[in-house]
Amino acid sequence: MSATLASLNSEWAELVRDAPPPATWQEHDPLRGISSLDEVLERVRCEPDATLSALLSLGAGGDQLAWRAVFQAMLPKAVRLSQGREDRLTEAVAELWVAIAEYPLARRPRSIAANLSWTLQRALAPTPVTLMVPTPPGPDADQTLGQARALGLIDAVHHQTLWLVYVAGMTSAAAAEELGISAELVRYRCSRSVRRLAGQAELLAA
């Protein structure tokens, strides 16, 4: 088993043991009666759209545990797409967080798991070199990040995270320890921010 997968499963096991579902979850019909996080995954299997919809709504309202439950339910898909490669799994984990956080629930309330899988698969598809833009890492990463911050393309939190990874050269785990957050959140911040900067390549190059 890969180190990334082992870490994620270990984290989930700790959450199952130490973090019972919040009382607010009981206000959502698909989650009513659930007393443990493992039961949430079972409910996703039995009533996927209703359960995932409730969890995504809670997550959009700031409930990180709800998003973590969606992530755990979708993790097997990320593992399959990684094809046994640790580097690809790390990328898949980051992209899965992005897909969950940005899921357009109002527009796509059905086939949620399939839509998340499709979004993840597209995100992991190889990008032609000719379409790549100057984004971190690179020799001008520090300057690029400073310019992005000055233009308001990233906030101070994301700037610090990107700087630690792409300028200071820290691993996700080391940056996470420095910031007091999880390595998964570091990868999520980096993936989301780099995609945003890629979409503003002309502005950054000006």
Quick summary of this structure?
The chain is built from 11 helices and no strands. The chain is mainly alpha-helical and 206 residues long.
What's the arrangement of secondary structure elements?
Blueprint: H1 3-18, H2 37-46, H3 48-60, H4 64-82, H5 86-101, H6 112-124, H7 141-150, H8 156-167, H9 172-179, H10 183-198, H11 201-205
Word description of this protein:
With 206 residues, this protein is mostly helical. The protein folds into two domains: 3-124, no CATH class; 130-205, Arc Repressor Mutant, subunit A. Helices cover 67% and strands 0% of the residues. The chain is built from eleven helices and no strands. The chain has helices at residues 3-18, 37-46, 48-60, 64-82, 86-101, 112-124, 141-150, 156-167, 172-179, 183-198, 201-205. It starts with a helix and ends with a helix. Mean pLDDT is 86; it is low at 127-139.
Strand content: under 5%
Helix content: 55-70%
Radius of gyration: 18 Å
Report the order of strands and helices. Answer: HHHHHHHHHHH
Low-confidence stretches: 127-139
Q: Cα distance, first to last residue?
A: 45 Å
DSSP summary: helix tally: 11
Our count of domains comes out at: 2
Structural class: mainly alpha
Main sheet record: none
